[in-house]
Amino acid sequence: MLTNEEFLEVIRKSFETYLSVDTSRSTAKLKSLHGSIAKDLKSLFGKDYKIQSQGFEEDKECSIDGRYYPKNVDIAVTKNGKAIAGYAVKFIMRNYSQNSNNYFENMLGETANIRSNLIPYFQIFIIFEKVPYYKKAGKFAKYDVVTEHNLSKYFALSKDNPDKFYHTPDKTLIVVLKLKDSNRTFTDSKDYANYYRSIINDNDLLEYSTKVVDKFSDGVILNDYSDFLQRTYYITEGKLKK
Question: What DSSP assignment string belongs to 9-65?
Answer without folding.
Answer: HHHHHHHHHHHHHT-TT-SHHHHHHHHHHHHHHHHHH-TTSEEEETTBTT---EEEE
